[in-house]
Amino acid sequence: MIVLMSDPPRTSLHDVARAAGVSLATVDRVLHGRAGVRERTVEHVRAVVERLGYRPDPAAARLARKSRTRVVFVLPSGTNTFVDMLDKQVHAVLPWLAEQRATAVVQRVDVFSPDALARHLVGLRGRCDAVVVMGQDHPLVRAAIDELVAHDVVVVTLVSDVPSSRRARFVGIDNVTAGRTAASLLGRFVGSRAGSVGIVMGSRALRDHAERLFGFEQVMATEYPHLSLLPPIEGQDLSARTEPAVAKLLQRETGLVGLYSIGAGNRGIQAALERSGRADRIVWICHELTPQARQALLSGVADAVINQDAGHEVRSACRLALATLSGERVLPDQERIRLDIFLRDNLP
Amino acid sequence: MIVLMSDPPRTSLHDVARAAGVSLATVDRVLHGRAGVRERTVEHVRAVVERLGYRPDPAAARLARKSRTRVVFVLPSGTNTFVDMLDKQVHAVLPWLAEQRATAVVQRVDVFSPDALARHLVGLRGRCDAVVVMGQDHPLVRAAIDELVAHDVVVVTLVSDVPSSRRARFVGIDNVTAGRTAASLLGRFVGSRAGSVGIVMGSRALRDHAERLFGFEQVMATEYPHLSLLPPIEGQDLSARTEPAVAKLLQRETGLVGLYSIGAGNRGIQAALERSGRADRIVWICHELTPQARQALLSGVADAVINQDAGHEVRSACRLALATLSGERVLPDQERIRLDIFLRDNLP
DNA sequence: CTGAAAGCGCTAACAC
DNA sequence: GTGTTAGCGCTTTCAG
Fold first, then answer.
1. B114: in domain
2. Distance (Å) from CA A103 to C1' D1?
3. Which residues of A touch B91 (CB under 8 A)?
4. How many domains is chain B partitioned into structurally?
5. Under a CB-based contact definition with an 8 Å cutoff, are residues B215 and B180 in contact?
6. What CATH number is attached to the domain comprising B92?
7. How far is residue A285's CA from residue A293's CA, in Å, rounded to a whole number?
8. For the ranges A86-95, A144-153, A286-295, B323-332, which has the lowest average pLDDT?
9. Does A106 touch chain B (CB under 8 A)?
10. How far apart are CA A222 and CA B128, in angstroms?
11. Could you tell me the residue range of the domain that residue A31 belongs to?
């Protein structure tokens, strides 16, 4: 009655070598694109690999590998709590990475300076096998990424993509969707009241912020035309700048019914909202479930938090980097980073 | 400038064997609780393992293992779309499982019949290594699970827990939180309008449904007292039963402003709502992002869908089952199944 | 009861 | 250019 699937006889390196009439080492060379094999042989082996549907066994590879693969995380410097969470998560996967014969380090570089970032990236060439970078989508950065890729380092973009570059993968949420979702929640939470809606972002130069803004404006314009959008305030993700800016906004806009915080600096926004005494009449939606955001949700100052799970992102970036390096298969479904919506009642 | 962490020198089976003054085979026997080792030796080896902080290398173990571990998924029979999705996802992990020297099969059994389920479970004894079961929390089922556990089969509960049993793990969302979240969204979406709120569930006997109901009632009572909860309708998760029941409800309750569908049978609910012509004035929240639910969301009939990702659940159940069998470490954070909130704007 | 030894499928020296 | 060979850390016969 219980029928277990019969073993599909996996084909091994050995099988490929035999079928191709060459040695293990040659197949290995071809598979890893290493030099020292005649072009004809390469093609022949490739064909056999294809025909036999050969897939390397990752466990065996891991076991046999001597050197550790080195991955470097390049994250924004500064006081951004979410970035600190990413940093922590990198340290948390270290034991797992060690088991995979890999190591990681985190380096913090100023995101708002594209050429510093680009220089840093290029400097990584030859010093590591993979780079996971959260940076600005800027021509200099793009060029730096392409340079790395040209020298066989696997590049994965994190949180904010650089789509025109030759990076192997992007790990992060769909930020246009995130903006649309924020608009949807904000619009529905505000209800039938009319009024204005403020927007605070780090900078238009940050692709993730720009995408969220785009999605947000799109939905607000079409679905909630009775709410008027105020021009976005750029606060460089710093509470020291968002706080006075929002305070001024609150003073000026007496009909403010909603506020969308696209980036960081939420501590400042929360302070301004609380001090105004109008926190409960203003629907505030922000991103990333930091300890402060959680507290704001619990106290009712924030109405919803749209989150991307730092742990999932870091683990996914590592898996993708290693898988790309070793030619393993990835389950795309498993690597899709979902956008979490947190209300007071479903805080984890 | 780049400092990569130095290799923490892993201790291997060899090290343990040498330190304990026994052979590899003996350590292996102790580690796997196999018979044929003197009690004194067992204790000694255990102590050394402890002292050296030995952790087996899963890749090496996988590689060396001859036989495949067999896992059986026991899912509800019937026409539940979400269950079909789980079933599909099991088939989707088969290649991955094969790589891990494991196989899986799905068996569908009537959930609403505890003793049929219990009998089936007990019958699995000796025929597999792990059982993943989505079933009713009923004394007979609990006893059957305990019986399996007593015979060394790893049991993982899926979607709906049987917490009083000795199952190794539960994979699923926190259903009380899910109910609370539904209430929160429903209350906020309804806004200031007063009226009544209907509830449709499969059966109070299903623990996940009961937990959702509990969470929902909790938040509705305390946060939205202007909305009156109608007594839950039990529709056995069948559209053939939910449709007439909801039609009657709509006819009777002219002041209905919200509807919470806790379980399945949503096709019937949607049909009744649409036929009534009041779909856009009633906030409808349901569970599980099936193709129909997605369509209902897009057409505006459903206002929010609370989801648990079938793929994540199946993969997590497999990882946990295998890890438990081999004594591997699991990352609890990675195995937590999150509750997804879907609105029209963040459909994946 | 316990130990020796043969692999699992791959990588990486080193030899030809 | 290409082949041989010695392991990686564990499981699993098979001998004692």
1. yes
2. 34
3. none
4. 3
5. yes
6. 3.40.50.2300
7. 10
8. B323-332
9. no
10. 56
11. 13-54
